[in-house]
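Moderator note: this is an archived Q&A kept for reference. The question asked for a predicted structure of one protein chain; the sequence and the answer are reproduced below.
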Amino acid sequence: MARILIIEDNPANMKLASLLLLNAGHTVLCATDAESGLTLARADQPDLILMDIQLPGMDGLAATALLKKDAITAAIPIIALTAMAMKEDQEKTRAAGCDAYIAKPLRYQELYEVIDALLAKGKLQAGAEANPFHLPP
């Protein structure tokens, strides 16, 4: 399965997200603030990032923008996690570079569906880049 980095400052939310991901067979990396999350993302190159938007210090939107501007981490899909569920909040996450948006509280089926879709999309893109003419390997 995938290696997923969770950047979340709330211990209860971190525990829930970690348990859901572990139960689905994923490997979990954890960071409690944007700065340590950026460091982990660059060093460990996770397959996907769950990014809380309201973090202490640098917020999740600023961290996402930095990750998407960095060639090392730009291709990593990022799912915004937020309790802010207004349409303009969703648009802000997209503008920052998030690939998807999930409102809290987390619902496991939605979380799994979004993760699976983004991971599948990433594998398709990686395959197309490795074989741009769609020739058999």
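Archived answer notes: The beta strands are 3-7, 27-31, 48-52, 78-82, 100-103.
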